[in-house]
Design goal:
This protein has 73 residues and is an all-alpha fold. It has 3 helices and no strands. Helix 1 runs antiparallel to helix 3.
C-alpha cells in the first residue's frame, strides 16, 4: 500500500497529518476535564496532559526520523 501513496510519506505531509490527529485527540481527550469539577478535574487534567505530551513526543520523533531518512525512505 505504501507504493500507492508516496506523497504521504514526506516530513511535511506527516507533520500536517499528525497536527490534525493531535488536534482531534486533544479535543476528544479533554471532554472529561470539562465534565467534572474540583479535584477530579485536576486529576483528569494531569492525565490528559501526560497523554498528549507522550503522543506529541512520538509524533515529533516519527517526523524527525522520516526527515532524516531512517524510516519510510
Amino acid at each position: 500500500m505504501l507504493d500507492y501513496l508516496p506523497f504521504l510519506i514526506s516530513p511535511n505531509s506527516l507533520g500536517v497529518i499528525f497536527l490534525v490527529i493531535f488536534l482531534a485527540s486533544s479535543m476528544i481527550l479533554t471532554i472529561p476535564v470539562f465534565a467534572t469539577r474540583g479535584g477530579t478535574q485536576v486529576i483528569w487534567t494531569g492525565v490528559v496532559g501526560f497523554a498528549l505530551t507522550v503522543e506529541l513526543a512520538v509524533m515529533v520523533l516519527l517526523v524527525v526520523l522520516t526527515s532524516r531518512g531512517d524510516i519510510w525512505q
